[in-house]
Amino acid sequence: xxxxxxxxxxxxxxxxxxxxxxxxxxxxxxxxxxxxxxxxxxxxxxxxxxxxxxxxxxxxxxxxxxxxxxxxxxxxxxxxxxxxxxxxxxxxxxxxxxxxxxxxxxxxxxxxxxxxxxxxxxxxxxxxxxxxxxxxxxxxxxxxxxxxxxxxxxxxxxxxxxxxxxxxxxxxxxxxxxxxxxxxxxxxxxxxxxxxxxxxxxxxxxxxxxxxxxxxxxxxxxxxxxxxxxxxxxxxxxxxxxxxxxxxx
Length: 249
Description:
Elements (H helix, E strand, L loop, with lengths): L1 E6 L4 E7 L2 E4 L8 H11 L7 E6 L4 H4 L2 H8 L2 E5 L8 H21 L17 E3 L4 E2 L2 E8 L8 E5 L4 E5 L3 E3 L2 E3 L7 H14 L3 E4 L3 E4 L5 H7 L7 H12 L4
Helix pairs in contact: 5-6
């Protein structure tokens, strides 16, 4: 087994290679579709149809945006959490979906990429809905961990033989320091998720926005202590800014 790291639109793309199949550890950004296929066909010299499975750790644009198109054009299956319902459901969900796509496009420009706003479906229909502790279908060496907090359906995936775990947006690095992600909808669940990874004590942790970090270099106690105690979301941020402008805070 080998994990290839590809530079995506605003995130690292992790492509797992076996002699007979490939797996994406997340659904990428919509604009990463061609990058992934080009890497499979020209760097790995393999067929795009070797891509057997695409994990979607949660529904944000840089993790689910490319899933459907890649699955369609590579005949791959999609697997995700078995959390009930759809993350972007209802009118509020539709607004949040567009807000997240705009935010992803903006982050891309901050990383020196050209402005690219690409739509992707806000509802996900997966082939596999995975409970906590389940093995990944057809990739039995990999085990699912539910790690909610950032959203209600975040998952991590743990490779048992190498003791490496991909945690997506469980933590991000800002100005050289690991902190909680934005948004953070469920602070208590988030701290429980951090504690679960701490107790697992993997050899290393793969992040969507920072690469691979040795477990020993991550201060989990500090992350838990500094994590927000109340939700930090789009709407709360907007309300705070409006109150600040109006002199109400």
